[in-house]
Amino acid sequence: MNPVPTEVRRLPEERRLRLTWSDGHVGEYDYDYLRGWCPCAGCQGHSGMKIRYLPPPSPVTIESIKPVGNYAISLAYSDGHGTGIYRFDFLRDICPCGAHGELPGALDV
Fold first, then answer.
1. pTM assigned to the model
2. Which tens digits make up the pLDDT trace of 30-47?
3. Which has the closest alpha carbon to 96: 28, 36, 35, 50?
4. Which residue from 10, 17, 54, 102 puts its CA 20 to 30 A from 25's CA?
């Protein structure tokens, strides 16, 4: 079974989101980093081939976090954006901890 988050916590002072995974791994994601990886069609286009990192034009905060079924979370940002659905496997792939290999510039979907 693939690991899933057991806790999702905002760290507002650090401007990070901490994900604790079922296998014990902990990853901390900068708000701007997550915004740059937004997987929605508005940010990534409709090709469905690759998800690219697109840095936000200005710093953002995460205003809300909502579960999406048993497979993802939805994040609403201070810039008004909130349509991206971040699948758990995708969040694991972009984990900035460095333990999972080199950070990608783009991911196949």
1. 0.89
2. 999 999 999 999 999 887
3. 28
4. 54
